[in-house]
Each structure stands twice: as structure tokens, then as C-alpha cells.
Amino acid sequence: MQSFEELSTAFSSYFNRTHFPESPVTLYEPNNYFLSLGGKRFRPVMCLMANELFGDINPDAWELASAIELFHNFTLIHDDIMDKAPLRRGQPTVHNKYCESTAILAGDVMLVKAYDYINKLKPDYLPRILDLFNRTATEVCEGQQLDMDFENRDEVSYDEYLHMITLKTSVLLAASLKMGGVLGDGSMGNLQLLYEAGKKIGLAFQMQDDYLDAFGDPAKFGKQVGGDILANKKTFLVIHALETASVAQRQELKALLDGRDDDKVNKVLQLFEDCGVRKWALELKNKFQNEALQHIDDIAIVSKRKQPIIAISELLVKREY
Length: 321
Prior knowledge:
Blueprint: H1 4-15, H2 25-36, H3 42-52, H4 60-83, E1 87-88, E2 91-92, H5 94-97, H6 100-118, H7 126-151, H8 158-183, H9 188-215, H10 218-221, H11 227-230, H12 236-244, H13 247-258, H14 264-274, H15 277-298, H16 303-318
Antiparallel strand pairs: 1-2
Helix pairs in contact: 1-3, 2-6, 3-4, 3-8, 3-16, 4-6, 4-8, 7-8, 8-9, 9-15, 9-16, 12-15, 13-14, 15-16
């Protein structure tokens, strides 16, 4: 069994090659640029880890992992357009560096290339992989639409936000694990446990992301603390604060979120503290993480083979960046 670091290095060596033709350069150069920005590549590596859980890595798993990474980057290119984001990984976004129309086409062709890699899988696996991949792609789009819908609403419930994040973030992690397990000929029971573990890891990952944006160390987080607050995003933290605050605190928080107070971030953070949001957030993250670990523990495979997946789940939810 290989560690995350070992598999990540191996996947980077495999993936860092030319995926697109040379011409037209105006279409393919933006994709080469975006992929050159790198990324943590958790999803494809988790696919490889799940595959190795059941034995030696199936050569098809490298093709599938490449498809997963290309799909993820396709979503990022289009998300940046929708969010009007100027930067991604500290560098200009595709639509900002080139133009919005080119970014749309570049994302589209990246998605098509992902299907090219899936099409290389052995026929025995292809129908099951395609079914899960297509369902996951649809759910990610649904999650993104719900996220945009929520921007136009005054209030969003915890359950609504949880459903949106499950679709937008968690299902791709879950599917990455399960698809790797499919290529490893895992049993139906084990595959479902992998999927459920991935969903809970994704929720814990998002909870940590929301937490770091509010309470993280800027030097480690690498981004401005309070960015979500300034953007008026409805995060786990905001939703819980609104649900637990007193009438006066709710009025103050809503006024801050709707206004342009120069000290907006500090005042909202103080309200978070007054409403017990920090403690609640850590407890919720640990709850998701513990549920993920229980699903992994229930997988009918010797414990030693599960250690890399346990390690990556802990890395994802305990990170400080």
C-alpha cells in the first residue's frame, strides 16, 4: 500500500503531460495554462487509493483518475466564470487571462477530454463507471445551481445548505473512491461504504474550509481571513449563527451582512463567538470525520490496507490551508 504522498507523486508524473492538440492554440493554450497551476489533486489520488485497497492498482485506474482530475478542473473553470473570480491558486483565472467565451469553450473541451479517458476503460467496467460518473456530474451541476440560488435568498436552512454542499463538493469525493473500488472489483457492500465515507469526508472538508475562512491563521491559510464574510456567503457558520442568535443578534448580523461596515469582519466574528459558532463548527466537523472513519472501519478488508485512506481523510479535515 502506498501513502498519499507516494501516489500523489506517481499521479503527477503520469498526469503532467499534454492532454490536448496544438491547434487551435487559442482554445488549448488556456487549458494547458490552467492545468499548469497545479492543485492538491486529492480526488484522483483517492480514486487510486480506493483501487489499491483491493489489490494491485488496475492500469485503468490511471486513466480514470485522469478523467476525474480533468472533470474537476472543468468545474473550476466554469465556477470561476460564474463567481467572476479574478484569481485561482494565486494566478489569473482563465476567463480573466483570456476571455469569458474562450474560458467556456476551454472548460467544455476539458470535459470532453475527461470522457476520452473514461472511454479507454475495459468494457467490463465501462457501464458502471459511466453511470456513476454521469450521475455525479449532474449532481455537481445541481449543487452549483443551488449555491447560486441561495445567493438571492435572505435565509437558507442548515438542511438546505447541507444538501447543496453534498452535491457541490461531497459527491465527487465519494464517487472518486467508489469508482476506484469498482476497478478493484470491490463488493457492493464495500463500494457503498467507500461512497458514504467519501460523502462524510467531503462534508468535513467543507466545514473545515468554512472554519478556516473565519478563524484560520492567514499565514497558513494563504487567503484573507473573512473572505466569505465580505462576500456575504451563506456558510455553515453564518447559517448556524442566524439559527441560534437572539433577536437582537440576528438583527445585528443581518445588518452587517447586508451593509458595508469597515469593520464588518471583526464584528461578524465577534457575533460568531457570542453565538458559540466556533465550538459548534469544530464539533460538527469531528462528527462528520468520525462517521467517515466508521464507514472505513466497516469495510471488509484487513485494517492495514485502510491506513492510507484513513490518513488522507485526516489530512483533508485537519489541514490549516
